[in-house]
Amino acid sequence: MSLPTATYRLQFRQGMNFDRAASLAPYFSRLGVSHLYASPLFQATPGSTHGYDVTDHNRFDESLGGLDGFLRLAAALKAEGLGLILDIVPNHMAASVHNPWWRDLLRNGRASRYAQHFDVDWSMPRVLLAVLEASFQSVLEDGVFSIECETDGPCWDYRGTRFPIAPESWHLLAQALPKGTDPGVMSPDRLPAWLSDLSNKQRLDEALRALSSDRAFLERLHDAQHWRLAYWRAGRDMLNYRRFFEISELVGVRVEDESVFADVHRLLFEMLEAGHIDGLRIDHVDGLSNPSGYLHRLKETAPGNPPVWVEKILGDNEALADDWPVAGTTGYEFAVLVGDLLMNSDGIDTVTDGYRAFTGSSTNVAAMLAEAKHEILTRNLAGELMLLQRLLVRMAALDPQARDWGPDTLRRALIAIAVSMPVYRTYLAPTALSPEDDAVLALVARKAVQIYDLEDPHVVSDVLRLFVEAKGDDAHYFRQRFQQTTGALMAKAMEDTLFYRSSRLLSANEVGGTPALIGSDEAVFADAIAARARRQPAGLNATATHDTKRGEDARMRIAAIADYPEAWVRAVKEWDVLLASEIDEVPDPEMRWHFYQALLGVWTTGDLDDLRERLSSYMLKAAREAKRNTSWARIDDGYESRLGEFVAQALSADSPFPERFSAAAARFIAVGERKSLVQLALKLTLPGIPDIYQGTERADLSLVDPDNRRPVDFPAHDSALASEPTPGGDFEQSKLALLLRLLRLRKSWPQLFAEGSFLPLDQPMAQQAGFFAFVRDFAGQGLLVMCDCAAAEAETDGQARFTLPESWKSMTLRSVYPDAGVVRTGNTVFSFDAFRESPVIVMQAESMD
Q1: Do residues 326 and 310 lie in contact, with contact meaning Cβ atoms separated by under 8 Å?
Q2: What is residue 188's three-state secondary structure?
Q3: 255-to-293, 455, 595 alpha-carbon distances in Å
Q4: Distance in angstroms (rounded) separating the CA atoms of residues 787 and 490
Q5: Per residue in 418-477, pLDDT tens?
Q6: In 3D, which of 28, 31, 49, 27 has the Cα closest to residue 40?
Q7: What is the structure's pLDDT at 820?
Q8: β-strands 54-60, 540-542: how paired?
Q9: Closest listed residue to residue 650, CA positions, set 570, 576, 598
Q10: Helical axes 589-602 vs 657-685, angle rounded to 10°
Q11: Residue 246: enclosing H or E segment and its boundaries?
Q12: How does 782-811 read in b/e, with b if 16+ C-beta sit within 10 Å?
């Protein structure tokens, strides 16, 4: 299967089904991408908005059009010469009664054929289902429970959700049978046939409803099940199955088991064999027990050897594992690298000083991350911590050197080690410790002792030794679960906590990055791109995804704050004084500083009602994720009401604030738009495969999900495309023109972009700081890209000079974007005033030989 020249990420559901996507195939082809990159398409829970809560890996979602609809989509794509990349979810499934595997497990317990499909701790007698709005006894007394009968047997109903009752307890329901009925019908073999007589079912239903009022009976029946219903808060520390992060509704799948692997991938492999799917994206690869083992099995068994991309967040100085047989990552690190390049480092200190003075908040990101990780591990992931502690205590008891460490000491060491992890996880194989993991654990050993006041720091080295060397089932399971837990811990602490607590400059708070971002120079950027190209030349270049915290153009607007930091700090103070005079109770300064940046990212002159609705939802989510004044688990209605009122009044048509904000925001928006064009050009021309997130052909001023998953106005996009946009118009026209020209060039010169060399150009003029240029070169074809990374329109003199490679002496240059390029003398190119008109210049080169 061939690699894409460019992908288009499309979110299904919420109005996007197979037939609608099929109708858009001509649009994707005219745009210039080679592959549609689809969100998960297999059957998910009813009403799912994203598809990551899979209920059946072997059915296409009926709400999207089922198998027939999928085949129509595949045919429509092929008719336009387009391939299909599918996002799959091997790590987890929905813990839902709509999931036939999970339903069977709930009904039959350890005897279920699917008991080993899920990562369940079967040492506990029953599967805990943390789904109730209060304790079991409270709900029982409220009379909410009832017993119903479905086609697969009796069920326990709780507000419309029906949990299957174990067949071995059906005899308890025999008293509900009509008089004279053989009690033996209450068996899996006989009950379905007996219920096929509708009069029998009607009489049984009536009797079961009457029986449901007997609370003592219900308690006895509940105690006889393979599951136990519990208060939803019990999920934090009492679940006996592995979750996805802290989401109790998603249960871990043991895809490392060969038979489970086969069951999960059966339909997928059929579609690969038939040629309907051309590549795979693996969701949350770090959640798997053994990512390398899974990826190798996939390579060995998937028909057609499709290219595979993994959703993997790389930490500082972390490279994609050499032994993973993948095309690359989904590109979070690319977005961070580009954002770092386009950050004006000179303005960071002023922004930081202004932030500290306004909020009083700390900017010690390392300490704040450690605090957040400790909080998440001991609260949100308390159940995972308790499991690891139990396993570790048993492991230590068998070790002569470690057996004198008590449970609490081991727990404290566990916390210190997990919090000190500098990356999402290690990848310890059963028989080997890689040099990369060895270096990580050596760093952890030092850091854990330094930041935690352990009574005897030697416990850390003992725990790490057991982690690496201990043998036996407990040790194997401990290694698996610890590595899976540290990935969830980092994600929840960094992306879903720290990003909302530390709002110094929100453009830095992006998936794969860190609030500590301070910018990088062109040489550092070039080295990082070259290193990435060596390891994953076909990695995706992403600047927006369904999981990024803000849209690609919103992020660049916020990054522009560092270009004019004094003006920003001054404006924030003025806005704050104005709003304080209008609003009785304003939220805390951290949230206000956060609000002004978020508003800059999405600001448009026009529909205040839409802005007010979007910002209200966003600020509520931001406050809950920060977990300071309110949270998802402990909602403070008063605080949330005041926050919502602040947003509503600030964005009221009667307030002078919107007009004043718009006037001050104009310069940041202008520079942000120039940065956005540079970002787009780099995504489309640097080594890797550009990924276009849905709707980002034009201005992407979205916020975090669900805002960035709103339906796209494709008719408007199609109309803009049909107009053949040219550079020099408004931002959206210039952006679309740049996208179209470069995507079409990628299609016509695929080998240049897939195999061409990447060579940064010398910058002989000292005053050229902030300019970045490079060439791509392959067999007589070349591309010259020159960027004004500072992008400060009012301050650039528009002049730069770059020296081309000697091999380019016989190459002719032709403008790709904008319509006028540079002046060339020998092997030197001069931009003169070109950068005044556009922050990016792209020229096509061909050999005259």
Answers
A1: yes
A2: coil
A3: 10, 40, 42
A4: 34
A5: 999 999 999 997 667 899 999 999 999 999 998 888 889 999 999 999 999 999 999 999
A6: 49
A7: 78
A8: unpaired
A9: 576
A10: 60
A11: none
A12: bbbbbbbbbbbbeebeebbbbebeeebeeb
331: left (phi over 0), alpha (psi -120 to 50) or beta: left
CA atoms 396, 286, 496, 130: torsion sign: negative
Backbone dihedral angles phi then psi of residue 8, each to the nearest 5 degrees: -125, 115
**Sole residue written with tokens 């409803």:** 209
Task: Write the single-letter amino acid at 763.
Answer: Q
Contacts of 227 (CB under 8 A, 6+ apart): 106, 126, 127, 128, 129, 163
Side chain identity at residue 342, one-letter code: L
Tokens of 451: 């930041």
pLDDT of residue 798: 60
Structure tokens at 332: 């979070």
Closest CA to 178 of 186, 170, 168: 186
Upper half-sphere CA count for residue 832 (Cβ side, 13 Å)? 6
Asked if 435 and 412 count as a contact pair (C-beta separation under 8 A), the reply is no
Helix or strand holding residue 60 (H, E): strand 54-60
At residue 398, the 3 state secondary structure works out as coil
Do residues 233 and 633 make contact, with C-beta atoms less than 8 angstroms apart?
yes
Spell out, as residue ranges, where the chain has pLDDT lower than 70.
Answer: 1, 430-431, 763-769, 791-798, 832, 849
3-class DSSP state of 309? strand
316: tokens are 């500082």
Structural contact between residues 137 and 215, judged by C-beta atoms closer than 8 angstroms: no
Q: Return the exposure string of 499-511: e unless at least 16 CB atoms fall within 10 Å of the residue's CB, then b.
A: bbbbbbbbbbbbb
Please give the Cα distance from 508 to 555 (Å, whole number): 8
Strands across the sheet with 92-94, in order? Answer: 92-94, 247-252, 243-244
Helix 348-359 / helix 565-582 crossing angle, nearest 10 deg: 20
pLDDT the model gives residue 766: 43
Name the token pair of 757: 């060399």
Kind of pairing between the strands at 42-44 and 92-94: unpaired
Smallest CA-to-CA distance from 338 within 840, 694, 846, 757 is with 840
- Residue 606 region by backbone torsions, left for phi larger than 0, else alpha for psi between -120 and 50, else beta: left
List helix spans (H) across 603-636: 608-626
Residue 6 in contact with residue 34, Cβ under 8 Å? yes
Residue 433's pLDDT is 87
In terms of DSSP bridges, do strands 840-847 and 781-788 run parallel, antiparallel, or are they unpaired?
antiparallel
Q: Which DSSP category does 39 fall into?
A: P
Q: List the structure tokens of 801.
A: 């000079």
Name the residue with tokens 């995504």.
683
First-residue to last-residue Cα distance in the chain: 33
The predicted pLDDT at position 195 comes to 87
Question: What letter represents residue 55's amino acid?
Answer: T
- What are 122's two structure tokens? 């079967």
**Between vectors from CA 187 to CA 185 and to CA 191, what angle results, nearest 5°?**
55
Long-range contacts, 793-797 (Cβ 8 Å, 24+): 793/670, 793/671, 793/674, 793/836, 793/839, 794/667, 796/835, 796/836
Q: For 469, what's the count of Cα atoms within 13 Å in the CB-facing half-sphere?
A: 11
Backbone torsions φ then ψ of 253, nearest 5 degrees: -105, 135
Q: Are 109 and 241 in contact (CB under 8 A)?
A: no
Q: What is the pLDDT of residue 152?
A: 85
DSSP string, 79-141: HTT-EEEEEE--SEEE-STTSHHHHHHHHHGGGSTTTTTB-B-TTSSSEEEEEESS-HHHHHH
Residue appearing with tokens 């592995």: 242
The DSSP element (H or E) to which 696 belongs, if any, is none
Give me 280's structure tokens. 């795979």
